[in-house]
Design the sequence.
C-alpha cells in the first residue's frame, strides 16, 4: 500500500463521514492554498462550499454515492471525481480527486 500520495499530480482530499477534512496530499494543499491549504485538515468541507454545492455534499454524506464532473476555471480544465470510501465495510467519508485534463484530450470508445 502507498505510504503517501504526494508524488502524484492529482489533488486528493479526504473527509470523514461528518465532512471534516482528514487528509490532503501536497497537490491538494497547493490547490486549496488560498483557502488555507493544509490548515483545512480538521475543518468541515461544508464551510468551504457555497450553495448548491453544499447541499449536494450533504446529500452525498447522508446517502453515499459518486459524483463526477468536469470544470474549467481560468482556462484550466479539470476532472473532479468524488466518491465514498469505506473502513471495515462501513461508510467512512468521501474522497475527492481533482486532476487537470488537456483541452484536446482524446476520447476512445473500446468495443469488445
Sequence:
Amino acid at each position: 500500500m502507498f505510504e503517501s500520495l504526494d508524488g502524484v499530480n492529482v489533488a486528493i482530499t479526504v473527509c470523514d463521514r461528518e465532512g471534516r477534512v482528514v487528509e490532503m496530499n501536497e497537490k491538494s494543499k497547493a490547490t486549496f492554498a488560498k483557502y488555507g491549504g493544509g490548515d483545512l485538515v480538521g475543518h468541515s468541507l461544508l464551510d468551504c462550499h457555497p450553495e448548491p454545492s453544499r447541499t449536494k455534499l450533504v446529500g452525498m454524506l447522508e446517502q453515499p454515492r459518486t459524483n463526477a464532473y468536469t470544470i474549467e476555471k481560468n482556462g484550466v480544465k479539470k476532472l473532479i471525481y468524488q466518491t465514498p470510501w469505506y473502513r471495515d465495510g462501513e461508510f467512512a467519508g468521501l474522497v475527492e480527486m481533482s486532476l487537470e485534463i488537456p483541452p484536446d484530450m482524446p476520447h476512445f470508445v473500446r468495443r469488445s
Observations:
- The chain has one domain: 11-101.
- The CA atoms of residues 17 and 62 lie 8 Å apart.
- The beta strands are 11-16, 21-24, 67-73, 76-87, 90-101.
- The chain has a mean pLDDT of 93.
